Amino acid sequence: MIVFTIGLLLFFVPHIVPLLVPGTKSALVEKIGEKRWKGVYSLLSLAGLVVIVLGWRQYRDVAPIVYDPPAWGRHGTMLLVWISLILFSVPRSKPGKIMVAVKHPMVVGVIYWSVGHLLANGDLASVLLFGSFLLFALISRIKENFAGDPNPKFRSYRSDIIAIGAGTTLYAVILLFGHVWLSGVALF
Fold first, then answer.
1. Which residues pair with 65 in a beta bridge?
2. Has residue 186 got a pLDDT over 80?
3. CA atoms within 13 A on the CB side of 177
4. Strand, coil or helix: what is 65?
5. Cα 126 from Cα 52, distance rounded (Å)
6. Which of 10, 29, 109, 137 is least crowded, fewest Cβ atoms below 10 Å from its Cβ?
7. Are 100 and 94 in contact (CB under 8 A)?
8. Distance separating alpha carbons of residues 22 and 9, to the nearest angstrom
9. Torsions phi, psi of 165, nearest 5?
């Protein structure tokens, strides 16, 4: 559980502090420079994700069960994860209908991904992992909403086609071998 907790902290502290404490990011960028900020932020995020996966894999087998997922939860997960991967793949350069409708596809994708996994997993390790991502994404989305959402203007269906194609391809890769490689959990 210690490794898992360290991973969650490594990942979420750099993400949540600038979100909740206005001016933190700009002060750090001013102090160390934009490239260094992006480098440190990226390294902490990547290290956090790696440690989260390692810690989750260790803790999941011994984590107590918090709730029994619904019988249909696994099917719901499959649909929500597919949608989330499409949202993760939305290009920002020329907004399509998806970007116009969702405004923040990455954040909304994290919400779908998290909820989907909570529908299929009721152990404490999974609840902490996916619940943390869900809480972070909800806080981020609410903050963006209060800050004034951008209103992207539709420019091209090309972005939608790219998102659907790339998201579906990524989904297939994860279904076939990526999920078991990453999490140790076979889907079939």
1. 123
2. no
3. 0
4. strand
5. 11
6. 29
7. no
8. 19
9. -65, -50
Q: How far is CA 24 from CA 14, 15, 90, 106, 125, in A?
A: 10, 11, 28, 22, 30
Tokens of 99: 């970007």
- pLDDT over 70 at 188, yes or no: no
Phi and psi at residue 95, to the nearest 5°: -55, 135
Taking the complete model, does pTM exceed 0.90, yes or no? no
The β-bridge partners of 123 are 65
> For the chain, where are the alpha helices, taking DSSP H only?
2-20, 24-32, 34-60, 73-88, 97-102, 105-120, 124-147, 158-173, 179-183
Distance between CA atoms of residues 69 and 67, nearest Å: 6
Residue 5 is predicted with a pLDDT of 92
Q: Which amino acid type is present at position 183? A: S
Is residue 115's pLDDT more than 70?
yes
SS3 call for 91: coil
Q: How many residues does the chain have?
A: 188
Tokens 């997960």, located at residue: 77
